[in-house]
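wait is this the right file?? whatever heres the structure
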């Protein structure tokens, strides 16, 4: 640091204080940005990655074919899939197999979206819900019945999309 005499220090440090105060003053006259949550829900970004959904085709068939690519790609090892074979009497998905069990450990998930990117059928998607807190650990292991959208398109994704 350069040696400054008394007056030089007063000028330099005084200018720094004034510069900082200018930022404060500028914000004094701007409208507040406080979000009145939960009375008013914030708008999340269009590409926000929140709660997962297992989506359906428009005819109600499950998109998931139990391939486990999402399991392999998940960096947090948060997904568990147990696949089973479709039969002529009971066809659940359009592939050879379907997910008999599907779990996501939401305590491990880091909402990276890799599972959605890896999924070849567009079955798993990350939605916009962000209110996922709970008091019980077991409530944060999402099962297939919790993850599956209740009807085609309920997750907000077009059930007629390709992937
Ligand atoms: S969003 Fe990322 S961490 Fe979460 S389940 Fe998918 S791949 Fe795993
Ligand atoms: S969600 Fe997609 S990637 Fe995961 S098992 Fe089902 S089809 Fe495969």
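ok assuming it is, sequence goes like this
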């Amino acid at each position: 640091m350069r040696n400054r005499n008394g007056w030089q220090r007063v000028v330099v440090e005084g200018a720094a204080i004034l510069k900082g105060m200018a930022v404060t003053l500028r914000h004094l006259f701007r409208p507040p940005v406080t979000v009145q949550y939960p009375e008013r829900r914030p708008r999340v970004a269009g590409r926000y990655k929140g709660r997962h959904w297992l989506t359906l085709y428009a005819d109600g068939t499950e998109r998931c074919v139990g391939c486990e690519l999402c399991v392999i790609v998940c960096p947090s090892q948060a997904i568990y899939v147990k696949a089973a074979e479709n039969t002529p009497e009971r066809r659940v998905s359009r592939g050879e197999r379907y997910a008999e069990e599907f779990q996501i450990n939401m305590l491990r998930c880091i909402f990276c979206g890799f599972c959605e990117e890896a999924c070849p059928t567009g079955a798993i998607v990350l939605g916009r819900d962000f209110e996922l807190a709970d008091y019980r650990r077991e409530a944060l292991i999402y099962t297939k019945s919790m993850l599956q959208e209740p009807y085609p398109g309920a997750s907000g994704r077009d059930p007629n999309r390709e992937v």
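The CA atoms of residues 37 and 43 lie 11 Å apart. so i think its the right one actually
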